[in-house]
């Protein structure tokens, strides 16, 4: 079987085009792998959950009898310690969860400190 002479440059051109397409697509075209897409989806769903549960957290803080003292403690604490105070108070623990949610604590802290 004789292979035409033009096939070698055609296959090399197709390979170079495929490589260029992949580089451009992943580099500048916004293409992502499945793992990256899953990671992005998880981050967005966690942020959406925290946003949806923020009113719940704020209401828990308003119903807490120690809320006034805890808010003074939050205002006096450093920026890095504030989330821990909200978590320790139990305001950022969703119903049925064993431990507080970090993203919810951050969102709740923003909501609580913007009211004062």
Write the topology of this structure.
Blueprint: H1 7-27, H2 34-63, H3 67-76, H4 82-89, H5 102-115
- Succession of helices and strands: HHHHH
Uncertain runs are none
Tell me the strand percentage band.
Answer: under 5%
Based on Cα principal axes, name the global outline. Answer: rod-shaped
Give an overview of the whole structure.
This protein has 116 residues and is an all-alpha fold. The chain has a domain of 70 residues. It is 72% helix and 0% strand. The chain has five helices and no strands. Helix 2 crosses helix 5 and helix 3 runs antiparallel to helix 4.
Comma- or semicolon-separated keywords:
single chain; 116 residues; mainly alpha; 5 helices; 72% helix; 0% strand
Quick structural overview:
This protein has 116 residues and is mostly helical.
């Amino acid at each position: 079987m004789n292979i035409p002479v033009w096939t070698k440059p055609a296959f090399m051109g197709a390979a170079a085009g495929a490589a260029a397409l992949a580089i451009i697509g992943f580099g500048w075209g916004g293409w992502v792998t499945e793992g990256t897409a899953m990671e992005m989806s998880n981050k967005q769903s966690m942020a959406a959950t925290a946003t949806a549960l923020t009113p719940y957290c704020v209401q828990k803080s308003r119903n807490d009898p120690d809320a006034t003292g805890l808010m003074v403690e939050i205002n006096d604490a450093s920026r890095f310690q504030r989330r821990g105070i909200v978590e320790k108070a139990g305001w950022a623990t969703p119903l049925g969860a064993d431990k507080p949610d970090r993203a919810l604590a951050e969102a709740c802290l923003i909501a609580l400190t913007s009211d004062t």
